[in-house]
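Example 3.2
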Amino acid sequence: MTGVTMRQFRSACLAIAVFLAGPAADAAEIIAFDVRLAGLKLSRLVVSGVVSHDRYTAALQLRTTGIAAVLKPVHFAARVEGRMQGERAVAERYTENVDTGQRQSQAALTWQQGVVVRREADHGVAARIPAPARGS
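Structure, written as tokens:
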């Protein structure tokens, strides 16, 4: 993550947790951070989320801006969707799209009953995740 401090990353994670735990159903929340170094804006981090009844969606997007985008274009987008089980978020689908300017990749995970059952990476290549062996 170009230019993002651990503090900013933790803040973004906390923002997602607040979205998921917040009392307001059907209310979309968006928080944006400008990532700066020596006063220069290097990138923009946007975190969004919504809880609607028993479903939730959260997303994170990081994109270099200004001169940083010219020198090192980076884009990262991730999205998670799932259901709410009481106050607990249970993931059902995660997707990400990464473009570093030199490398592009996509990935996705699918869960069933809290267990990853499908992993997709780059151009839709999919792999079934075998069920864990009993007793392990």
